[in-house]
Write a structure and sequence with these properties.
Pfam families: ROK. This is ROK family protein. It comes from Streptomyces ficellus. It is a single chain. With 246 residues, this protein is α/β, with parallel strands linked by helices. It folds into two domains: 118 residues, Nucleotidyltransferase, domain 5; 108 residues, Nucleotidyltransferase, domain 5 (2-Layer Sandwich), CATH 3.30.420.40. The protein has eight helices and 15 strands. Strands 1, 2, 3, 4, 5 and 8 form a six-stranded mixed beta sheet that branches. A five-stranded mixed beta sheet has the order 11-10-9-14-15, covered by helices on one side. A two-stranded antiparallel ribbon has the order 6-7. Helix 7 links the parallel strand 14 and strand 15. Helix 3 packs across helix 8. The protein binds beta-D-glucopyranose (BGC). The site of beta-D-glucopyranose has 16 residues, from helix 3.
């Protein structure tokens, strides 16, 4: 069965129909730039455009880069603050002619996809997926079960929020070398490990495509560290999985 997945990010909004048996995109994804400011109405318009690109009609799963309880947005660190308090499923449902909408946190969606089809397949115990992008997202699993909205990117590191020290946006903005950035990521992973003692860290986000450039530089973390296998499509696939599971 195919279900549509959309990943709303700080810089791009991308989506595609997803083949839920294979856990992969059924067609190449379509991407539009996130409008600035990224207000609910403008972002909803972009989501509608991505869905319309495929002539899709049916269930749609959507990720959001903030805390989502039910389908209400509770935080918006890297998108317009006017999202806070918005029922995203209701808003998007109106724009998408009543198609059933499921909304969840972006890292949670990516984690769900990786735990079923990627680096976390069949893994028991504590597994933490971390996505590095505009911010840092987290998804915590115990014996394959998600604890949603963990927000570990906002842990304090060296007196700052971790995502203000170690996201890939910070790497780009400050023009950090792979070595400099890996050192920050290492410190962050050690901190998260101290708190949760996971067996496995799955590293996602666009940077997972370049895992060979920085994972070998990370030392002193006991847990296994694996790059996301679905790479930057994990959010789209996980969104569609969540919508398909309803
Ligand atoms: C948000 C998280 C999100 C992460 C990655 C953080 O700033 O608070 O909810 O998962 O960025 O987009």
């Amino acid at each position: 069965m195919n279900v549509f997945g959309v990943d709303i990010g700080g810089s791009g909004i991308k989506g595609a129909p997803v083949d839920l048996e294979r856990g992969d995109l059924a067609e190449p994804r379509h991407k539009v730039l996130t409008p600035q400011p990224s207000t609910p109405d403008d972002v909803a318009g972009c989501v509608a455009e991505v869905v319309a690109h495929f002539g899709w009609s049916g269930p749609v799963g959507v990720t959001f880069p903030g805390v989502v309880t039910g389908s209400t947005i509770r935080t918006a660190a890297n998108v317009d603050k006017s999202w806070i308090g918005v029922d995203a499923a209701a808003l998007l449902g109106e724009r998408l002619s009543g198609m059933p909408i499921t909304v969840l946190n972006d890292a949670d969606a990516a984690g769900i996809a990786e735990m079923t089809f990627g680096a976390g397949r069949g893994r028991k115990g504590t597994v933490i997926m971390l996505t590095f992008g505009t911010g840092i997202g987290s998804a915590l699993f115990t014996d394959g079960r998600l604890v949603p909205n963990t927000e570990l990117g906002h842990l304090e590191l060296d007196g700052h929020e971790a995502e203000k020290r170690a996201s890939t946006k910070v790497k780009d903005d400050k023009d950090l070398s792979w070595e400099e950035w890996a050192q920050r990521v290492q410190k962050y992973l050690a901190h998260v490990e101290m708190l949760f003692s996971p067996e496995l860290f799955i590293i996602g986000g666009g940077v997972s495509r370049k895992a060979e450039k920085f994972l070998p530089l990370i030392k002193g973390v006991r847990a296994e560290i694996a790059p996301a296998e679905l790479q930057n499509n994990a959010g789209i696939v996980g969104a569609a999985m969540a919508a398909g599971a309803r």
